[in-house]
Amino acid sequence: MSTTALGAEAVRTEVRSWLAEHWDPKRDAREWRGLVVDAGWAYPSWPAGWYGRGLDKDGSAVVAAEFAALQAPFGALDVVPGAGQIELQIGANVLIVHGSDRLKRELLRPILMGDERACLLYSEPGAGSDLASIQTRAERDGDEWVVNGQKVWTTVAQHADFGLLIARTDWDQPKHQGISYFILPMHQPGVEVRPLKQMTGDSQFNEVFLTDARMPVHHVVGDVNDGWRVLRTALGFERLVMGSTGTRSRDERRLPVGGSIDLFELAERVGKVHDPLLRQAMVELFILRTVIGWNARRAAEITRQGGFSPAASLGKLAMSRLLHDSAGVADRLLGMTGTLYGEHVPDAHAANYSLMMAFMNSIGGGSDQIQRNIIAERILGLPKDISTDHDLPFRDVPKAAGVRPLGTPAG
Ligand SMILES: Cc1cc2nc3c(=O)[nH]c(=O)nc-3n(C[C@H](O)[C@H](O)[C@H](O)COP(=O)(O)OP(=O)(O)OC[C@H]3O[C@@H](n4cnc5c(N)ncnc54)[C@H](O)[C@@H]3O)c2cc1C
Questions:
Q1: Is 366 touching ligand 1 by the criterion CB < 6 Å?
Q2: Higher model confidence: residue 364 or residue 305?
Q3: How far does residue 364's CA lie from ligand 1's centre (Å)?
Q4: For residue range 100-136, what is the model confidence (pLDDT) as tens digits?
Q5: Most CB atoms closer than 10 Å: which of 45, 81, 278, 399?
Q6: Whose CA is nearest to atom 35 of ligand 1?
């Protein structure tokens, strides 16, 4: 009988007795993480046998609460989409739903232990919103796949051990077919990463050039040419994470902007806590954040079961609004100081940094306009946009010729 079937009280008893036996605040963090992962408490909603316990969301919430009560880390990370590196979480969840047993055996534990870092090799210079237009190709060569092409906007590629890659494997099929989803080892001569400068001054994302990059034949996730289905699961999870980060703040009195500045605290610091218009604006943001949290829980259930939930698009779009509007309210609280940027004005710096980072949420993982299209079609039932290339073999689809890599001079 699964622990779920035993009910929440039985889960509580079991996790409590396990914690009583194993938890010691002085224990080495890495050793503790290994114990939690192997016991299935880190991702209790995952299947028993794959580092989980097959619990439902109520069971996972019980696990999270019991770990939190002792301030023991790494319990029920699945209750908090976005805990840990987002790309790793996406990779782990994609493997759980679509990966072969061999890939799961090789990769899941290192991912859960935080030993690996991942990046998302999806976007290309000619394929962003319309991802099905990718031209990076993967071809079989004996026991390996050989990859050639260019990716762009690849966050943390410079630190990644593996990339979650989409590449074209059959040019004679229509554009959404003939794509496969792979795990590409990043540390090899065929992978060149070039950082790009963002408006924040950081260089978190990159161009990635793939020239005869290689990976073992079993590194395909799901079936060959069925990568679009796998990608939909991955994008669903990404939207879920981007649409729910920060909505589970344990302290209800906090209202963080982009994770770095708390509007309620800022209002107190600048003496505007009694300003009626700003109070109203902050309460509206608080309500929006709360509703986004509820929506995220609904979408999480569907996405975890391998489904594609348009509710994740709703949450991601609402999160964009929350982040942009929160940064706007922070600037109103700061007044003239809000126009400054630099370490000497920490509040203004944090608010303006958050404002610039808000664009990450409204572009990355599918832009706000694309989320609106999904909501229009999948939730409101409006007709799809006209498409002229949907059924053509990809080979015959008109393409941008000779896309110039960013950062290289024209001519
Ligand atoms: C901070 C950041 C991090 C990123 N990280 C990654 C990453 O790690 N890996 C990765 O692969 N990609 C990443 N991306 C890329 C991101 O997914 C793309 O930028 C995004 O999908 C948009 O594609 P594009 O930039 O090519 O714009 P385009 O697709 O060219 O879109 C341009 C504009 O047209 C609009 N538009 C396009 N098509 C439609 C349509 N059908 N209906 C209505 N409007 C439309 C868009 O909304 C947008 O405003 C990241 C982007 C950002 C900003």
A1: yes
A2: 364
A3: 6
A4: 999 999 999 998 888 888 999 999 998 999 999 999 9
A5: 81
A6: 369
The total of other beta-carbon atoms located within 10 Å of residue 88's CB is: 24
| Residues carrying CATH 1.20.140.10, the chain | 243-379
Burial of 398 (0-12, 13-18, 19+ CB in 10 A): exposed
CATH class of 118-225: mainly beta
Q: Under a CB-based contact definition with an 8 Å cutoff, are residues 157 and 193 in contact? A: yes
> 52-79, pLDDT tens digit by residue?
898 887 888 888 888 888 888 887 776 5
Q: What Rg value do the Cα atoms of the chain yield, rounded?
A: 23
Domain 243-379 has CATH 3.40.190.10: no
129 lines ligand 1 (CB under 6 A): yes
Task: Say yes or no: CB of residue 3 within 6 Å of ligand 1.
Answer: no
Q: Does residue 81 have its Cβ closer than 6 Å to ligand 1?
A: no
Q: Which of 31, 87, 238, 265 is catalytic?
A: 238
238 as an active site residue: the answer is yes
Residue owning the nearest CA to atom 45 of ligand 1? 369
| Whole-Å CA distances, 41 to 104, 206, 212, 287 | 18, 35, 40, 32
Q: pTM for the full model?
A: 0.88
CA 127 to ligand 1: nearest atom: 26
